[in-house]
Amino acid sequence: MKQVRPLSAATVLAAVLFAGCGAPPGQPRPGSMTLAPGDVVDATALYADNCAACHGADGRGGAALALADPVYLAIADDRTMRSQIANGVPGTPMPAFGERAGGTLTEKQIDVIVSAIRTRERSDDLGGIEPPAYATASIADRDRGGVAYRKYCESCHGPDGAGSARGSAITNDSFLALVSDQGLRTAVIAGRRDLGAPDWRGNLPGTPMSEQEVTDVVAWLASHRVQTPGQPYFTSTNEQR
Q1: Phi, psi of 113, rounded to the nearest 5 degrees
Q2: Domain tally for the chain?
Q3: Residue 202 and residue 76: Cα distance in Å, rounded?
Q4: pLDDT at residue 239 above 80?
Q5: Which of 78-92, 148-162, 223-237 has the lowest mean pLDDT?
Q6: Neighbour tally for 24: CB within 10 Å
């Protein structure tokens, strides 16, 4: 019978170490390395790190509009969303996230986020009603917009858009300083379900706003912008006292 030689202590120790590591000494375990920021392509992580703070953890709204809203998804195409993520919206709190514009996201990462937004659940088929276009294609008339405002919006947002118990002030100079004309248009069309604000179909039940009425209302709202928004703490007269 062949005699079996006992293993040395060093051999046993080496076997235990190799079994525990699963990788040669000095090499990291598979999956243990932290990815560089530009290499992250997980949609959940990218959305959480870059979008959730404003648009909500599930895309259903927060400080900014809901990206999972079916009306928004129906009117905003991929190119629009991609451009806004990459380049931001000048004059608003929406920053540029794309590397070419000084942000941190690569082209691929932006594509991943857009795809994730596009695949959000869409439980509303819009009732077969075609929504107004995302961007206006007609000439706006703010006087007609005032008429449309009184018809569709005044019952909630009060006379002249100053607000009421049912809705916020939307001609406030500070508010208008933080939103673009396109942002106003998107809000009029899509509403803010998270805030109880109806979309273009629900302001006057049974009477959806027309494309032209949306365009005109936005012009009327934008006409309330002022060059220097916000009440100054001191006037030149006070400073001389």
Answers
A1: -65, -45
A2: 2
A3: 20
A4: no
A5: 223-237
A6: 7
